[in-house]
Write a structure and sequence with these properties.
Layout lengths: L6 H11 L11 E7 L6 H14 L3 E8 L6 H11 L7 E2 L21 H7 L13 H11 L5 E6 L3 H8 L10 H8 E7 L5 E2 L2 H4 L3 H10 L6 E4 L1 H4 L3 E2 L3 H4 L5 H10 L6 E2 L1 H11 L13 E3 L5 E4 L6 E4 L7 E6 L5 H12 L11
Parallel strand pairs: 1-2, 1-4, 2-3, 4-5, 5-7, 7-13
Antiparallel strand pairs: 6-12, 8-9, 10-13, 11-12
Helix pairs in contact: 2-13, 3-4, 5-6, 6-9
Length: about 350
């Protein structure tokens, strides 16, 4: 059993290596984020991480795809990017667009936040109908990317990716969607499923047919890494933000609107996924901390086992480019939550990655 990494050790490691976390803005790992920003606030945490790492040079945020139909998702994503000084990051909106706002009919304890973000911190996109469709933006960003360069990070439903896989050649590119993915994407990172088996909301909650299509039709040459519901459900961020963030902080306000006034505690499914999608297993050291994640398997592949989106891992030694994630040996839930909190309290104008 590994020795637990305490928050104090992580902090000391960061202080010793903080200079390693500085680079040129937007020159890091190229990424596209496909998010269901609307029904859970951990998407705000995920987009906060992406913007901070974009600003300190570890990520290059090329675009954001919204996979929920509410008119508030795309403006909220634009507001987050604009808050961090990245108003030119393009955002795509799924059609048809509705005027729905979030209503918690599961536990009746969560609040609506997306429309409030869009209203209180208006970004460069204030009307979802002015945004391109996800397939349009995907094809444009992919066509202009270097070969085998992009990471697609899916933190919601797989509707947009299924549509992209079905897309045909057009004026943007002579390649089909599948061919563009084969040529331009070096890894797909998916927050979805449970491992080694089970049911999870992103896979089965709204569009299980698209989940099945993506899992069955994803190009076999492009690696896929899954961040399961069991991983983020035990990591609760929010210990520091209320004490350290100003009252007009977008991330902290969004979390309080969703979780409840005076609380920022929420599971970290999407933030963990984005951290891996940008840093992989090895580049946590660029933040000045120990590697935080590891693969839970050496081989095999994911499969959908039922029409409700349930999944199971198939052990197959011939497949070596699909994995699911776990915390690295010695890393605790508290340690990972500490790292996520660093981004939730991050001032927009700070150039270094952690605070």
């Amino acid at each position: 059993m590994g020795i637990s990494i305490s928050t104090a050790v992580l902090l000391l490691c960061w202080l010793a290596n903080a200079t390693a976390a500085k680079a040129t803005k937007g020159q890091g790992q190229p990424i596209i984020i496909d998010t269901d920003l609307f029904g859970d606030v951990d998407d705000v945490g995920a987009l906060t991480i992406a913007n901070v790492l974009h600003n300190c040079g570890l990520a290059d945020l090329r675009g954001i795809m919204i996979n929920t139909p509410s008119q508030y998702g795309a403006p909220a994503a634009s507001a987050i990017c604009s808050y961090f000084g990245n108003k030119n990051v393009p955002v795509a909106a799924l059609r048809p667009i509705t005027n729905a706002s979030f209503f918690d009919d599961w536990e009746y304890v969560r609040g609506e936040y997306a429309s409030k973000i869009a209203y209180n911190w208006p970004g460069s996109l204030t009307n979802a109908s002015l945004a391109p469709t996800p397939v349009e933006l995907y094809r444009s960003v992919l066509a202009s990317a270097e070969n085998s360069s992009l990471h697609i990070i899916s933190i919601g439903f797989l509707t947009n990716l299924a549509d992209l896989l079905r897309s045909e050649a057009d004026d943007v590119s002579p390649l089909t969607g599948t061919e563009l993915l084969e040529a331009k994407v070096s890894e797909l990172v998916v927050m979805g499923g449970r491992y080694p088996s089970g049911w999870e909301y992103n896979f089965g909650g709204t569009d299980p047919n698209s989940t099945t299509y993506v899992i069955e039709h994803w190009p076999k040459t492009v690696p896929v890494t899954f961040s399961g519901g069991e991983l983020g459900s035990t990591v609760f961020s929010g210990q520091r933000p209320l004490e350290e963030s100003p009252s007009d902080s977008l991330p902290v306000s969004a979390y309080q609107w969703y979780v409840g006034r005076g609380s920022v505690t929420r599971e970290a499914w999407d933030p963990i996924t984005v951290l891996y999608g940008i840093l992989g297993l090895d580049n946590f050291t660029k933040l000045g901390v120990w590697p935080m994640l590891a693969y839970a398997n050496e081989y095999g592949y994911n499969t959908i086992t039922a029409s409700n989106g349930s999944n199971a891992w198939v052990n197959d030694t011939s497949v070596r480019n699909q994995h699911w994630l776990k915390l690295a040996d010695g890393v605790t839930n508290t340690s990972m939550a500490w790292l996520v909190d660093n981004f939730l309290v991050h001032p927009p104008g700070l150039s270094r990655c952690l605070v």
